[in-house]
Amino acid sequence: MRLALLMAVAAAMLVSCGRSGPQPQTVEPTQVVDRTAPSIIYPDFGDADPHDWEGRHPGLYPVHGLDVSRWQGPIDWRTAKASGVSFVFMKATEGGDVADPMFDEHRRGAQAAGVPWGAYHYYYFCRSAREQARWFIKNVPKGADLPHVLDMEWTPHSKTCTLRPDGRTVRAEAQRFLDILERHYGRRPIVYTTVDFFEDTDIGRLPKTEFWLRSVAGHPREVYPRTVWRFWQYTGTGLVPGVQGRVDINTFNGTPENWARWKAKS
After folding, report:
1. Does 67 participate in catalysis according to the annotation?
2. Can you give the CATH number for the domain in which 107 is found?
3. Is residue 12 predicted with pLDDT exceeding 70?
4. What is the residue-averaged pLDDT of the chain?
5. Domain range holding 129?
6. What is the pLDDT of residues 132-168, one digit of tens each?
7. Is residue 160 helix, strand or coil?
8. Active site residue 28
9. Active-site entry in 76, 105, 145, 153
10. Closest CA to 190 of 248, 129, 119
11. Is residue 37 in a domain?
12. Is residue 113 part of a domain?
């Protein structure tokens, strides 16, 4: 509810700024005030383990969404959308032979509810980029609303693959994977990564690449200095109506108008 309150305050400031004379009637805090902007519902989410944010709170960004996998189970997508979920990235594959058993159900449910979706691939360094890209393409049909995602992070708890290649190798493999998917789907994927992986591999040097950054204890401008980001995963313990248990929550870096233009590129 803290997030919803911040969004309500931001909405009130936007309405009153620069106005004189009688003020408009109070609007519901979960509704967009600017009728000319794309339809965005301010999020009404909770957090099981909230961070005490300093500086720019994630709630001051208007466009929020989820990333999900089999661990969320079935999702009531219409309820989630009504609570402020504006997009979702769903796990499709990992490595060269694992597919998320909930992917098709999540995809169909999001599509039916009108929630823009993209899919992500969890990368392992024991298979080639080409093999993993082919596996993703085999399991993810065309027609996504958003660009797909290459999830690159270290895998220290894996039972089968804990390799940690040097940064040059990592960037070369990522480049191959991104190029293959871009040729197939027509839009270059985003790269999701974590703080330690970003620092260890210098993956931020990838050309023509947009980044989705995990940072649950600080704003990206502090944790990833001078890095341009498209999405920010700001909690892994979110509580969202329609979703069972805890879930990752993310925000888009931009206004509703920016969001509409960026999404339309897909």
Report:
1. yes
2. 3.20.20.80
3. no
4. 88
5. 43-263
6. 999 999 999 999 999 999 999 999 999 999 999 999 9
7. coil
8. no
9. 153
10. 119
11. no
12. yes
